[in-house]
Amino acid sequence: MENLILDCDPGHDDAVAILLAAGNPQLNLLGITTVAGNQTLEKVTRNALAVCAKAGIRVPVAAGAERPLVREQLIAGEIHGASGLDGPVLPEPAFDLDPRPAAQFIVDTVMTQPAGTVHLVPIGPLTNIALAMRLEPRLVSRVKSVVLMGGAVGVYGRTPVTEFNIQADPEAAAAVFEAGWPITMVPLDLTYQALATDEVLARIGAEGGELGTFVVEMLTFFGNQYRKERGLPAAPVHDPCAVAKLIDPAVFTSRPAFVAVELTGTWTWGQTVTDYRGQLGRPHNAEVADRLDTVRFWDLVTDAIVHLHNS
Ligand code: PIR
Ligand code: CA
Fold first, then answer.
1. Which residue CA neighbors atom 4 of ligand 1 most closely?
2. b/e burial code for range 257-277 (CB count within 10 A of at least 16 → b)
3. Active site residue 119
4. C-alpha separations of 56 from 6, 24, 300, 305, 311 in Å
5. CB of 151 within 8 A of CB of 188?
6. Given 20, 115, 117, 156, which is the most exposed site by the fewest CB atoms within 10 A?
7. What residue ranges define each of the domains in the chain, with the CATH number in brackets?
8. In Å, how far are 6, 12, 18, 71, 175 from 172, measured between CA atoms?
9. pTM of the model
10. DSSP label at 175?
11. Contact 149/165 with Cβ under 8 angstroms?
12. Sheet of strand 252-261: strand arrangement
């Protein structure tokens, strides 16, 4: 049983990550925290509560940072739509938010659980994680690991060299990579292997009941956006890849590297620089995911949806 806090900005793929984290019996989801990213904080928080209501998930949800630490806000409206989760009809929230800000929730939760037992899984901009580290520096040694979706090695997203989650708050990301805790980075290179093909969607729709239909509606919208905006054959479902690692470490392979976040380049700020070969003379600070077992991955996602549907 692995304990985790999911820090997210739902977001279609974030929504699937919530379902995987709550629906897999080997995971204990201690709470969901939200951060502005794919849409405004208000919208992504509402979406998190809507996904919980739809799936019957009952865990604390705490809202976090409304904007990045330093820079102008970036929003990914072109892929996720005006609501941040366009496609399906979203139910009304079924419960209230936790009153604490996300960073405080993260600190309280990690510091009250036994040391070395809680994973942080950030799948949006890293603002809340950086704020939590500043609020309580002992967080860094107390967390079991950080498995984050973000960055890119040789495959790029928002610009020719950047990935959205890192570029949306590069100062926060730099602080997280420099902190000295065990980090697994799940970059676009890995998540572009997690394509929601027609075959994948047909199976989720057939096995997942009403919740499966909701997921198919979400990912059909997401796929159409990716086809239109990026010319991809199907939508890469980025965020649940990070969650899957805690269920089955063999779901992807990874290699140690030194990862730096570029903060000053005119054209490159927000880029992750991944040094596998020690050329920069710095110690490794992350495991970087490279190859996904797609069959295993989609089995885990489908099973979690079926499990939530049946419970
Ligand atoms: C942002 C995302 C996805 C697509 C675009 N175009 C922009 C979000 C996803 O939720 C994921 O966490 C990460 N950011 C992928 O870059
Ligand atoms: Ca996300």
1. 79
2. bbbbbbeeeeeebbbbbbeee
3. no
4. 17, 14, 19, 11, 8
5. yes
6. 115
7. 2-310 (3.90.245.10)
8. 17, 23, 23, 10, 5
9. 0.98
10. H
11. yes
12. 61-63, 27-34, 2-8, 118-122, 145-149, 183-186, 286-292, 252-261, 272-275
What distance in angstroms lies between residue 283's CA and the mean position of ligand 2's atoms? 28
Taking only the tens place, the pLDDT of each residue in 122-144 is 999 999 999 999 999 999 999 99
Ligand closest to Cα of 191 equals 1
Structure tokens at 208: 């997942």
Strands (E), 123-269: 145-149, 183-186, 195-196, 235-236, 252-261
What is the rounded CA–CA span in Å between residue 143 and residue 137?
Answer: 11
Pick from 74, 165, 224 the residue to mutate for probing ligand 1's pocket: most ligand atoms within 8 Å of its CB: 165
Tokens matching residue 247: 């269920």
Structure tokens at 5: 């806090």
